[in-house]
Write a structure and sequence with these properties.
Helix content is 88%, strand content 0%. With 235 residues, the chain is mostly helical. This is ZIP family zinc transporter.
Length: 235
């Protein structure tokens, strides 16, 4: 159980650290867009080489596809709720949508991490670095957008602290559930995270990066993908 707590905190900490970094300085829009594009590329690699490929090998296509569909629908519904709330306040839901995406990705992803730890699977340093590469830009971008939208600094920190704590707790929950779950559950959880991330990337993160970084977005995305893919293959 101690290992689950440790790795849960390590995997979730970048979510809160990114929010802190967003407050330490005013990020120029172009730099922020580049960071978001880099993070989007890292998340694409995570979907391809960790969530999809490993899920397919572990449990086969059926639970994976079901998980993808549920994750996509869950994120879509949550994002539309945020859009409606933002419209009433005449604001922008972009930062909130990134936070929802991090939550819907982080919970199932760290559930799988906890189950793997309970099963005796080792955690590689490459995997930890890959999580940092994908989570950090996501929280920086979201926190910066929320601050620009007028949210108080204390509320932004509280929001991302809550996301990080919930994701870390999911690792411990996965460790406890390991004895009553099988490969189909782990595969569906991976698919859920992949589905939520794909919709978030297309609807929110990539357009947000493009609006800020302009022609640099593609380069940043490829660099993020290449680094995260290399780390995933190394692990």
């Amino acid at each position: 159980m101690g290992a689950a707590v440790l790795w849960g905190v390590v995997a979730a900490a970048p979510l809160f650290i990114g929010a802190v970094l967003a407050m330490l300085r005013k990020w120029p829009p172009r730099w922020l867009g580049f960071v978001l594009g880099f993070g989007a590329g890292a998340l694409m690699a995570s979907i391809a080489f960790e969530l999809w490929e490993e899920g397919l090998d572990r449990g086969g296509p059926f639970p994976l596809v079901i998980g993808v569909a549920l994750g996509a629908i869950s994120y879509y519904v949550a994002a539309r709720i945020l859009d409606a709330r933002a419209a009433k306040k005449k604001g922008d839901a972009g930062g909130g949508q990134l936070a929802v995406g991090a939550l819907l990705d982080g919970i199932p992803e760290q559930l799988v991490l906890g189950i793997g730890l309970a099963s005796g699977e080792p955690v590689s340093i490459a995997l930890v670095v890959a999580i940092l590469v994908s989570n950090l830009p996501e929280s920086i971008g979201s926190a910066a957008d929320l601050l620009d939208g007028g949210m108080k600094r204390s509320r932004v920190l509280l929001l991302w602290a809550g996301v990080a704590v919930i994701c870390a707790a999911a690792t411990v929950a996965g460790f406890g559930l390991a004895s009553i779950t099988g490969d189909a559950f782990r595969t569906a959880a991976s698919g859920f995270a992949a589905g939520a991330l794909l919709v978030m990337l297309v609807d929110s993160m990539v357009p947000e990066a493009q609006s800020k970084a302009k022609e640099s977005t593609g380069l940043a995305t490829v660099l993020g993908f290449a680094l995260a893919a290399g780390l995933a293959l190394a692990s």
